[in-house]
Amino acid sequence: MxxxxxxxxxxxxxxSAVDAATGKAATPKATSKAASNGSIFYGMNGHNTNGGAYxxxxxxxxxxxxxxxxxxxxxxxxxxxxxxxxxxKVAKVMAxxxxxxYPVLMANLNYNSxxxxxxxxxxxxxxxxxxxxxxxxxxxxxxxxxxLNGNVDGVLWNHYNNSSYxxxxxxxxxxxxxxxxxxxxxxxxxxxxxxxxxxxQMLADGSQPDGTWGHPTVSWDITSWHWYSNEGDITNxxxxxxxxxxxxxxxxxxxxxxxxxxxxxxxxxxYNQIASYITGDTMMAQYxxxxxxxxxxxxxxxxxxxxxxxxxxxxxxxxTTKKPAYYSYKSFVQSHPM
Length: 338
Description:
This protein is of the alpha/beta class. The chain is 37% helix and 16% strand.
């Protein structure tokens, strides 16, 4: 999901904590078939709660397309109890076919305090984990970008607005706690995009942009990152503060890395040029080559279908017409087993 995407409010419907708790025992779980499928290195993004081709195309057809691509993990967004329930139905189909689906919980910063953000995040986390027991839950989508102090890189603590940072921290803490209240074994995925890594360093060490320390810390299991063609080489990304090896900084955080959005901007060039770039030496080929060096455990393309966010899909918005990038991705996966 791109930073420009509309992030829906966390609160959702009228589900109460009691409703969530009483539904816990009935929550479906991912099947052992998906869990034993092996590598989740190659994956894809989808938007099964956002309409368009995803609504018009059955989960079974999406599954067949993912299987054909060789994609074994499928990232989709959740922003309410209703969307969580809808995604759970798709997740069951995917699991039965050996594809691991996981949700990215979409939060915003429209709150008056960190406590308010925490409670909204908690509710969304609890609702999502109560709808289906996923193996992984991603908490927030590029929230750090909403806390920047203007057009800055994000590599330093003072590149962030303190009040916005606190709201984001509250929402993230709440989502994690809400998920864990239902599924204590859940793996938490957290990350951002571009050079915005100081945000996550502050979450981990209990500091914040006003220079103070001793604040609540955040723990997670997998560091995720987003990267697009206009950003160049993720190991030598150059902004106003100079050039940075983003993967090395993320690796230094001590957690496995997922590049769980990578894609080519639709205005990059022709369909054939896009197909060449996506598997090239600053995207899929690079990620595979440096996977062991940086402990990259999954890469997930953006996205399966064209939709309202743009023509990023490997398949056009009819859910059927495959672009050259589809075949490029498929061929690369077949020739580079991970």
